[in-house]
What does this fold into?
Amino acid sequence: MIKKCYRFYIFLLIAVFLMAPQTAIKAGEELINCDIQNGSCTKKAENLSVTLDIKPKPVKAMTDLIFTVTLTEEYKGEVPYIDLGMPGMNMGQNQIQLNRLSGRKFEGKGVIVRCPSGKRIWKADVVIPEKGKVTFIFDVIY
Amino acid sequence: MLSIDGLSFALFSTGLAVGFGHCIGMCGPIVISLSLAGSENRIGNHLCYNIGRTITYSVLGGILAVTGSFTGLFSEMGGFQKGVMIFSGALIVFMGISMTGLIPKLTFPSDCFNSSGGMGRLLSKVTRKGNALSFLILGIVLGFLPCGPVYTALLSVARSGMGASDKLQAFFYGFILMALFGIGTMPALLIVGRLSTLKWLKSRKVIYNIGAVTMIGVGIYFIYQGIKY
It folds into this structure.
């Protein structure tokens, strides 16, 4: 009996996993905090303002993109990087290494991959070592 | 950038992690369909399917490590991937319909694992015990299904080729790295395959029918996403 119940719950678990992508889409839309398609976005990390821009526009998945991070003040620490992911879904590690263009400006190339679930909400965690990270959540065109 | 050793571990562990999350959600319906179609040697069949999938990932990894152009390769392959997604959706719908028993010619016989007529006979020909090669080929084809975590792994692999001394070494790096990723995703899908034999469900008609309807829904969703892709 216990064995039969166990199998039933496993079946339910699989059903829940099947519904997970749709739930994640709704959760993602509520979280959007950056209109990257129409310009750059700015967020605060401690006492530092971090601006993210992605070009070319419109920002499309599966194309080569240039990510630019601009800080409000001079930063001489370890070079920042960007972790790309989807809210609520593990897509594996997609990290963009930035190069220093000046004391305040950093740039790197990367690709936002396409999720066949149709989910278009992506997040970029801009990590500034010693200063923390800021999260930008935005819509991507497929 | 991570070293090859570091990347190997990172990709294997990523495969393991996404296997138990993303892959169960996205590839679970396919695996359940294969369970339904399978015969006595179900674990062997699932293993062959997973090996086939991993072969595709590995070859793509090898090619990307040599060319270094992720967007170039996938802009060429978009149409083919669309076709594979629609095909897999149709397969799931087909299996779901056969489970409902609404269309007699597509219905499994009383014991779906002892196929003797209609749909069961057709599937048993394709997936019978001695025909593990069918599962391997199916795995190779479905390995081309569009998949976010696979793309992400391939992006890392495309960059890894830059550290190789020649193209052959780059191909080898890419091949091995993606093979490790594929192996990492296997345990989750093998467990789903083992647990979804559905033999126990046959005596619970309501649950069995819910499963069938869910599969038809998921299959239609796959076809819809494939058309949109």
Q: What stands out?
A: The radius of gyration of chain A is 18 Å. Helices of chain A lie at 2-31. Strands of chain A lie at 41-45, 48-55, 64-71, 81-86, 89-97, 99-100, 105-111, 121-128, 132-139. Chain A has a mean pLDDT of 84.
